[in-house]
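Human: Here is a favour to ask of a fellow structure person. Comparing notes only helps if you start from a blank page. Give me a protein, with the fold worked out from its sequence. Please set it down just below, with no commentary around it:

Assistant:
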Amino acid sequence: MSLTLYFHPLSSFSHKVLIALYENATPFEPRILHPDDAALGARFKALWPIGKFPVLRDEARQRNIPESSIIIEYLDQHYPGATRFVPEDAEHARQMRGSDRFFDLYIHAPMQKIVADTLRPAGKNDAHGVEEARTMLATALGMLDREMAGKTWAMGDAFTMADCAAAPALFYASQVMPFAATHANAAAYLQRLRHRPSFARVLAEARPYFNLFPQAAAAEGAELKRSA
């Protein structure tokens, strides 16, 4: 098998890539990174010394591809399927990449800041940084709520890389700062994403790892509610 993905099932940026792989049923070999598997960790660090995941290894082309957006564009170029993640039209592609960056930088990043702060040692928390992150997240959710009025997916009718970015960012954001009661359009968009078979599969595979998430009870409860 040509493609190998190094990832973790709880990782939100790993989710972004997994959605793209599952959308087109792209064959790949999963390599789940775990602190107890030192040998796999060493092989991963040899491929990508930065050590951040996900990373895609393409044996056929002898390439290592890091960074979730770059991986999805690589798949769209070299392993295309029925779902095309990057629009052919250059202007539409630019707009899509802007949407992808919006989800990663203004929803994904502040969400991760809030979560990461709960994992800091006692006395090392960054209350000011968390407050800033919550403000940014609230602002971004308000922008998204207005943008999604009357739309199905981030770019309209077509599911793209921007939606791959939106799904895990909004799912985890809904756990750390619930927005269903305040941002109806954004919440309805998240529900459509959760019912997309590719993302539903990602969440089902992540379920055994939810106990590792600091907001585990909320995440598990939300997933059980969806499955009921």
Remarks:
- The radius of gyration is 17 Å.
- The domain at 90-227 is CATH 1.20.1050.10 (Glutathione S-transferase Yfyf (Class Pi); Chain A, domain 2).
- The CA atoms of residues 176 and 215 lie 7 Å apart.
- The chain has two domains: 3-78, 90-227.
